[in-house]
Automatic annotation (TrEMBL), chain A:
SUPFAM superfamilies cross-referenced by the UniProt entry: P-loop containing nucleoside triphosphate hydrolases (SSF52540)
Keyword Transport (UniProt): yes
Protein's recorded name: Dipeptide ABC transporter ATP-binding protein
One GO biological process term: peptide transport
Higher taxonomy: Bacteria, Bacillati, Bacillota, Bacilli, Bacillales
PANTHER family xref list: TRANSPORT ATP-BINDING PROTEIN
Provenance organism: Brevibacillus invocatus
From TrEMBL, chain B:
Organism: Brevibacillus invocatus
Domain of life according to the entry: Bacteria
PROSITE patterns the record matches: ABC_TRANSPORTER_1, ABC_TRANSPORTER_2
Source organism phylogeny: Bacteria, Bacillati, Bacillota, Bacilli, Bacillales
SUPFAM superfamilies with a match to the protein in the record: P-loop containing nucleoside triphosphate hydrolases (SSF52540)
The protein, known as: ABC transporter ATP-binding protein
Length: 329, 340
């Protein structure tokens, strides 16, 4: 893990006012009758060698953000600047080239691998598509990458269904890694795995980061894995970042009421603490197609006052930023 | 001493498959008292869900209880006819499932589905049943229950649907509630709500709960005693405090250490259990955990260990040879990464 994420470094990725709206269509002529504001104005930077985690509950827009950055779902508005280039301005060929440095690992290793292809072919595909290796070198590179992610070359001729969930996720990682990317967007890479396997994959990701100087954008809904892997954490709620700080600060000194509630909600594997005092948030996440006026969290916030129902708080603060009219602590 | 009202004894469950018969649950024994909560924890495929489904006798056409008995209030559930079993399901034992999305019928309103069950089991008139259903929905914290009762399931969020499932499950006042991963599909903040709700209802109704989860956090919050299952067998059984304070089986220990705790030091390497769960078709000989166990000996490879009580605590049972021989050493740094 890189501890020198100082301010004077140039970020590898900068996201400015990123928005992604999905139209709601109705009727025979598919008139647009509304918009789902999945991601509503995100600003953040990632520095080389660090891991930034995006954490939030389902529907908060964290995966959409990941996909928008890789341009799988181009953003509605805003800029994504990766290594000095704005992604939206790139031509098709340039974008393809940029993508060799910017890869993504998906949540579900079951559906992200083509079941009809052998592992060897699945791994060779990115190399051939990007013409990064001669035909003769491909097989050597595939063997090497299998070794790196903890599989071996005898696995090459097998099909995805012959592997366990953890092994499949290793294949997903190998597939991203074979292009020697600079930044990998990890979209809930361990959520679908069993606890004992999660630990294996998290350790692997951490080792790879050290060995290949990788930068991660790590998307997760649970805070446990995130604490272990990330340097900084951005907490998202309803398409916006509500708090962004160093990992220790988020855990030791959470300032947004939502972050606090999230930390309290986590079940602790220690039965002696089962009767602890804690905040249990009422209600559900509002519908992003019809978000509440003012602060998105005010409907569930124990501290909400009149201003929260009227004005949207901006993300303020340099090292520990929080979007709240009445931050705690 | 209260009597056990559920006693599962040496249960063995098998499924017919194309590749022959597979035993997915073997030698599972446990007891439950009125008002007690038992947690069953393990990874996918360890047989925790099958254990609970056997109590309900919901094993489908391919599954069957091969050996053992399930004594429930003096009746052996394995020997009852299908008609007798139907009397018990819903009435005395009810169940909530992981996916509240798929366990509610999408083409009927919430009220329709609740009334069907109340009508069937509780002998109430239509208007009484409706009032009762609304009362139950209010009890589980559903706002505007009078209106929502006429809505279809898709109008509700995941957390709300799970509340409806709980209301349905509890409406016939069962003495046993089986909750199979009740919060796995939900977000953490909603999970916290549902767990609080289950705790409150347990206090009010003195219902015994069998909660199945892969999440040790959920088990620590809810259970009085815990079964840890691995590859179809119980590998450790203890009350919740003993289990978390002094886990004995290498698998239980590994499972506990591999959770990234919130208070975990992030610089340390996360402990992980090497390898993967064995395939049911190819169960290893001897101890089923031996190929992933850092302490495995010759004996573990060849002979299957029995589930034995440890000397100073009669209720703490462990399936491990090492304990038998009292040679379990304190682990050293030899926990290097071995990969599947």
């Amino acid at each position: 893990m890189n501890k020198n994420t100082t301010e004077n470094q140039t970020p590898i990725l900068t996201v400015e006012k990123l928005k992604k709206y999905y139209p709601i269509k109705k009727g025979i002529i598919s008139r647009t009758v509304g918009q789902v504001k999945a991601v509503d104005g995100l600003d953040f930077s990632i520095y080389p060698g660090e891991t930034l985690a995006l954490v939030g509950e389902s529907g908060c827009g964290k995966s959409t953000t990941g996909r928008a950055i890789v341009q799988l779902d181009p953003p509605t508005e805003g800029k994504v600047v990766f290594r000095g280039k704005e992604m939206a301005s790139l031509s098709g060929a340039e974008l393809r080239k940029a993508r060799t440095d910017l890869q993504i690992i998906f949540q579900d290793p079951y559906s992200s691998l083509n079941p009809r292809k052998r592992i060897g072919d699945l791994l060779a595909e990115p190399l051939l598509a990007h013409q990064l290796a001669e035909k003769s070198e491909v097989s050597k590179k595939v063997d090497d990458i299998l070794e790196i992610v903890g599989l071996n070359k005898y696995h090459r001729s097998r099909y995805p269904h012959e592997f366990s969930g953890g092994q499949r996720q290793r294949i997903g990682i190998a597939r991203a890694l074979i292009l020697q990317p600079k930044l990998i967007v990890c979209d809930e890479p361990v959520s679908a795995l069993d606890v004992s396997i999660q630990a294996q994959v998290l350790n692997l990701l951490k080792d790879l980061q050290k060995d290949f100087q990788l930068t991660y954008l790590f998307i997760a809904h649970g805070l446990g894995a995130v604490k272990y892997i990330s340097d900084r954490i951005a907490i998202m709620y309803l398409g916006k970042i509500v708090e962004l700080a160093k990992t220790q600060d988020i855990f030791k000194n959470p300032r947004h009421p939502y972050t606090q509630a999230l930390l309290h909600a986590y079940p602790i594997p220690n039965p002696h603490l089962r009767n602890r005092e804690r905040i249990v948030m009422e209600g559900d996440v509002p519908n992003p197609a019809n978000p509440p006026k003012g602060c998105g969290f005010h409907t569930r916030c124990p501290l909400a006052k009149d201003i929260c129902r009227e004005q949207i708080p901006g993300l303020t603060g340099t090292n520990h930023s929080v979007a709240c009219h009445f931050p705690v602590g | 001493m209260e009597k056990n009202f559920l006693e599962v004894d040496k249960l063995q469950v098998a499924f017919r498959t194309d590749k022959g018969e597979v035993v997915s649950v073997d030698e599972v024994t446990f007891q439950l008292k009125q008002g007690e909560t038992i947690g069953i924890v393990g990874e996918s495929g360890c047989g925790k869900s099958v254990t609970s489904l056997s109590v309900m006798r919901l094993l489908g056409r391919t599954g069957m209880i091969k050996k053992g008995s399930i004594q429930f209030n003096g009746k052996d559930l394995t020997k009852l006819s299908e008609a007798q079993m139907r009397e018990i399901r819903g009435n005395e034992i009810s169940m909530i499932f992981q996916e509240p999305m798929t366990s509610l019928n999408p083409v009927f309103t919430i009220g329709n589905q609740m009334l069907e069950l109340i009508h069937l089991h509780m002998n109430m008139s239509k208007s009484e049943a409706r009032a009762y259903a609304i009362e139950m929905l209010k009890k589980v914290g559903i706002p505007r229950a009078e209106q929502l009762i006429d809505e279809y399931p898709h109008k509700l969020s995941g957390g709300m649907r799970q509340r409806v499932m709980i209301a349905m499950a509890l409406s016939c006042k069962p003495s046993l509630l089986i909750a199979d991963e009740p919060t796995t599909a939900l977000d953490v903040t909603i999970q916290a709500q549902i767990l609080e709700l289950m705790k409150r209802l347990r206090q009010e109704s003195n219902t015994a709960i069998m909660i199945i989860s892969h999440d040790l956090g959920v088990i620590a919050e809810m259970a009085d005693k815990v079964l840890v299952m691995y590859a179809g067998q119980v590998v450790e059984e203890a009350d919740v405090f003993t289990l978390f304070d002094e886990p004995k089986h290498p698998y239980t220990k590994g499972l506990m250490e591999s959770i990234p705790h919130l208070e975990h030091d992030s610089q340390k390497k996360l402990f992980s259990i090497p390898g993967t769960v064995p395939n049911l078709h190819m169960m290893p000989k001897g101890c089923r955990f031996h190929d992933r166990c850092p302490y495995a000996t010759e004996k573990c490879v060849t002979e299957q260990p029995p589930l034995l009580s440890i000397p100073d605590n009669h209720n703490h049972r462990v399936r491990c040879w090492l304990l038998d021989e009292q040679q379990q050493q304190t682990p050293t740094d030899s926990r290097s990464e071995v990969i599947a």
